[in-house]
Amino acid sequence: MTIVRFVLRRIVALVLTLVVASVVIYGLLFISPGDPATLLVGGGKPNPDVVARIHQEYHLDDPFFSQYGRWATDILRGDLGRSLAYRDDVSHLLSGRIPNTLLLVVFAGVLIVVFGIGGGVLAGLRGGRVETAVTVGSSVAMAFPTFVVAVFLIAIFSTQLSWFPVFGAGEGLGDKLWHLTLPAISLALAYIAWVARVTQVSVRGELGAEHVDAARSRGLPNRWIVRRHVLRNASPPILAVSGLMIAGLLAGTAVAEKAFGIDGIGSLLVDSAAKQDLAVVQILSLLMVAAFVMVNTVVDVVNVALDPRQAVKGRD
């Protein structure tokens, strides 16, 4: 029952977070400078009567909570609004771009789990030169932002060696994975470094714990000790940080997608913000917040499933 209550509390917190986030996102864009109506008349100095009719048609002069209530109600009904810049439904704009971004995030997430957690566990268990190499490598990787890594990868592996394509997302699963290899690496590299460092420290800390020494003194097999005592007890901080990193990938997709010419929601967010296309920016911002909160909620639930004591700590 403790775990059930914990999950219910997390669900309630998730819903409240999304409600607050939606109000903040809509409010910030509501008070942002500029008039979205100018998008429909081509900018410049539009006819005031035309602008007034657009304001009336799109309810742009209504009070804040009236506009927000209409927007939130439409979202709950599945109507995400209409883009003023693209002259298209937001749902249609997203439908063609979400698969590319989702595949990129999943690809980068797999790299984080395999190389971040794997490298950290290996460094923590082996120590010595392996630990030194992971420490130095992760420290260097943390220093480079996504766009710098993207430019470097393009210059070496696309321009010089011609191993990977430099533009687009490809067609078909195999071709898409080939096209997204460099973007996924550029997006995940810094996150891999963070996860590797946290994993390394957590594993090293558990190796020196008293219960591990006690298990060794009883003559238990080292593989069993590592699996049942070291990795299991080290997993909560590792999963927490990995979840944060994977959830944060969505925010970084804009840089990777623009650098490699990928038609995804990250690049769409950048373009829509530049065009003051509020309907698209609002939905994409809310979508990224929702994904971030949901991933962290799932991580919390997994941590509690692995160690039910976490539910008691969370309640306290």
A few lines on this structure:
The chain is built from 13 helices and two strands; from the N terminus they run αααββαααααααααα. It has helices spanning 2-30, 48-57, 64-76, 90-95, 98-126, 128-142, 146-160, 173-207, 210-217, 222-260, 265-274, 278-306, 309-315, and strands at 82-83, 88-89.
What distinguishing features does this structure have?
316 residues; mainly alpha; MetI-like fold; two-stranded antiparallel ribbon; 78% helix; globular
Please provide a written account of the structure:
By secondary structure, the protein is an all-alpha fold. The protein folds into two domains: 10-88, no CATH class; 98-263, MetI-like (MetI-like fold), CATH 1.10.3720. Helices cover 78% and strands 1% of the residues. A two-stranded antiparallel ribbon has the order 1-2. The chain is globular, with a radius of gyration of 24 Å. The model has no long low-confidence stretch (mean pLDDT 82).
